Amino acid sequence: MSTLRRTGVLVITSVFAFGTTATVAQASTARADSKAVARSMVSAHGWSRSQFTCLSRLWTRESNWNHRAHNRRSGAYGIPQALPASKMASAGRDWRTNPRTQIRWGLGYIKKRYGSPCGAWAHFQSRGWY
């Protein structure tokens, strides 16, 4: 992590695993935007606020809501840490770069496999993966 001063404004930067530099504020904004999209999609699925809380905990542990998160060991990718990552292509061709596409795919996967985000979170807590 480093700091820069630009016209009297302190900017904190961080280098991520992909070798790119982004401000902490940009990363935080991207996570907040992704969470807002997910909150809306959770509601559209008919799930409650508590289901979003479970989803938030799950995806914070999996990727910290980073749509470019990549597990080099397993190959899992994106906010939901899809494995193989290419499965997310079923939700859209832009799955590598679009958090909304990743979230849409992730919620469909959770609904089909676990019934709800809290079901996926419970599985994660007992097994360390979902």
TrEMBL record:
Q: Which keywords does the record carry?
A: Signal
Tell me where the signal peptide lies. 1-27
Q: What is this protein called?
A: Transglycosylase SLT domain-containing protein
Domain named Transglycosylase SLT: residues: 57-118
**UniProt xrefs under InterPro entries:** Lysozyme-like_dom_sf (IPR023346), Transglycosylase_SLT_dom_1 (IPR008258)
To which species is this protein native?
Answer: Streptosporangium fragile
